[in-house]
Amino acid sequence: MSLGLWYAQPSNTRTPPDSSSARRADRSLEEMGYLLHCFRCSHRRTVGLDLKGPLDCEVCGAHMSVGGPLWLGDLADSSFCGEMLEASERSVVGSNRRLMEMVRLVRGEVGQPVGFHRIDKLCSMIGVASMPTEEALDAIRDAGRGAVRTHFDRRGVKTNASINELLETLRCAKGAG
Fold this sequence. Notes:
This protein is α+β, with helices and mostly antiparallel strands.
């Protein structure tokens, strides 16, 4: 989808924008969309800006809520985060451990899906006692899925596991599966 942007010059002639700028704008638009969330089963999925079709959950059939439009791409650049960590480690003033941990967490989120799950909520859904975040992350990774803690919620995880995989993994980790 092209924006087809044009701008007016004082002489009222129309000139196309720099094609590289237009391509960057088009790529940015491809990273925009909506997050669909099912409040019944916690399934989530993203769709582009051309929100069409049924808004029913593929997992449980309930109506999904729509959030957005929002940015669906990465919120940070991994190499820039790396440069920040290196600069902080080399700093004469010394490094801010809290800040460095935040940057490490943000860097870990690069490439992960939009949205997150809270461990407490997931455990409640399957009727088991909650578990430490690191224990949940280990269980998800041991099941062969990617998982990282979010930078904004100590109990939040981002994962590429489906909601059913996630719940089954936590159920098994608690010995309830």
